[in-house]
Amino acid sequence: MYAIIGASGFFGSYIIKAVLEKTDETILATSRTKNEFQTYDRVIWRTCDVSDPWSVDSLLNELSREAGVKIVYLAAYHNPELVERNRTLAWDINVTAFSAFLNKAPFAKKLYYASTDSVYGNSADGYRFKENDALNPANFYGHCKCAAEALSIHQGRNVARFPFLISPSITYKKHFYDYIVDSLRHGIPYEMYVDSFRSSLGFDRAAELLVDLIEIDDTHQIVNVCGDKALSKYDIGLMIAKRENLTPNLIRPVSATESDTWNKVARAPSTIMDNSLLKEILDLQYVDVFERPIKN
Ligand SMILES: NC(=O)c1ccc[n+]([C@@H]2O[C@H](COP(=O)([O-])OP(=O)(O)OC[C@H]3O[C@@H](n4cnc5c(N)ncnc54)[C@H](OP(=O)(O)O)[C@@H]3O)[C@@H](O)[C@H]2O)c1
């Protein structure tokens, strides 16, 4: 069985799909609320607020009766601006609650923590960060992720570091992708950063790669799960316009570092990751942002 903690969000909904497509396993998926989410034959939903010890105990008590459970931990308070404004709350949810969860889940066969390229800091001159590079997060969100990673590693668990992820939402809320498409469909220009780069991936591609990793190999404790190309959001906007048959001229390049929104929180202008370890483990030649990876 897979247990996906924080499964009702953007990434969780794609991880459910990937587990169903790539394995015969059943899934216990958790959400904070009792919303009606996608119903699939092999998925059961439970409510769990990771900052509520009673709710975590009840969930882990149920999971401990399952043999060989594989946990994917996604629950996070992760809007960098909100995290900066509410540091105590962010630490409680992202670090303290996760620590308690980990400590009570020794029975799990595997546990993967979803981390981020934000742990690395800025990659100057196009440098691609490798898994064992020093960590230097630009903001408190990144620090929370570093702390949660350290907890995972010292408990013998696994960390997957993801870049900026983008796809149409298949859950209850719209993603950035959907807002871009809506805007272009209505003929409204959409400004996107041209001078900030990430090794971006679609949520579907990232979810499939994560499930492949979980199924194939857990000997490498930290793996960058990202695409080959360093892309700006402007590049991605142009790609979205093309794949949705919309006019690319409405995607307008703007500078990230000169924008008011960007400057609300300290951010690394570019966080580019090296994916050679991922490619070696999964025997891949090329990892595209939206298309399926090319195998060797
Ligand atoms: N999206 C990216 O580009 C990206 C990149 C790197 C890493 N990640 C990591 O991937 C994970 C999932 O991100 P996402 O993009 O899917 O974001 P998301 O849609 O906001 O999902 C976050 C999930 O965490 C849940 N959650 C928040 N507080 C919780 C709590 N106290 N107890 C239990 N669940 C809680 C949310 O539940 P509700 O729906 O009930 O609020 C939601 O299901 C996060 O850990 C994030 O840091 C994401």
Task: Characterise the protein shown here.
With 296 residues, the chain is α/β, with parallel strands linked by helices. It has nine helices and 15 strands. The strands form five sheets. The protein has a seven-stranded parallel beta sheet, sandwiched between helices. A two-stranded parallel sheet has the order 6-13. Helix 1 crosses helix 7 (203-216) and helix 4 packs parallel to helix 5. The longest helix is centred in the N-terminal third of the chain and has 17 residues, at 87-103. It is globular and about 55 Å long. The site of NADP nicotinamide-adenine-dinucleotide phosphate has 24 residues, from helix 1 and strand 5.
Characteristic key phrases:
single chain; 296 residues; alpha/beta; Rossmann fold; UDP-galactose 4-epimerase, domain 1; 2 domains; seven-stranded parallel beta sheet; two-stranded parallel ribbon; 9 helices; 15 strands; globular; binds NADP nicotinamide-adenine-dinucleotide phosphate
Q: Provide the gyration radius in Å.
A: 19 Å
Bound small molecules, which ones?
A: NADP nicotinamide-adenine-dinucleotide phosphate
Q: What are the segments in which pLDDT stays under 50 over at least 5 consecutive residues?
A: none
CATH superfamily of the largest domain: NAD(P)-binding Rossmann-like Domain
Summarize this structure briefly:
By secondary structure, the protein is an alpha/beta fold. It is built from nine helices and 15 strands. It has a seven-stranded parallel sheet, with helices on both faces.
